[in-house]
Amino acid sequence: MVNTLRIGVLALQGAFIEHIHVLDTLRSTEHISEIIEVRTKAELDRIDALIIPGGESTSIALIAERCGILDDLRAFVQTKPTWGTCAGLILLAKNAIHTKKGGQKLLDALPVTVSRNQFGRQVDSFTIKLVTPCLGADAAPFNYVFIRAPAIVSIDDPEVEPLVQLPPGHGQTEASENGLLVAVKYRNMLGTSFHPELTNDSRWHQYFVRMALGTA
Prior knowledge:
Layout: E1 5-10, H1 16-25, E2 32-38, H2 41-46, E3 49-52, H3 57-66, H4 70-79, E4 82-85, H5 87-92, E5 93-97, E6 110-115, E7 126-130, E8 142-146, E9 151-155, E10 161-165, E11 181-186, E12 189-192, H6 203-213
Parallel strand pairs: 1-2, 1-3, 3-4, 4-12, 5-6
Antiparallel strand pairs: 6-9, 7-8, 10-11, 11-12
């Protein structure tokens, strides 16, 4: 366990700047010593925890492979605190369905099956406010933002802890009738379908920092 954190944000493609802005607001209160844009193995080696942002999961994997850090990322996420949001959730997963023709490379770490673009196209984006116990017993509802989002359609290891489930009816498969999972925790990993970095609410970032410190 560390007392302060050097947090990296994978900065190959997608909404990495937005995550950095949120983390920057937490520097003085959440034991963050440094925020690092990660594009190389050297930068990956410097950090204690990693956020893999939303974006285009196939593109992020392809760029990581071309930059020579895909295998280093696979090794990192096995043991170090890692949070995948939206596309980052897809990358973290062991299994993904409804991928592009030919499939895509994954980090093969989080034992769930993720359905890519579960909620449809950009025009099908939506927000929903939900009470979220892991953010605090008496916490106000969090405003969840879903943009071409994936969903977790199966948990493939009993150690995976469900954190957030949507009310029935959101999504495009039969699984949505029972309410789709959109956030889970597994050992050192956090996987979420939504975009907390696009809100003015930093509670999910605080949760990840405390998880990385061993206090969540």
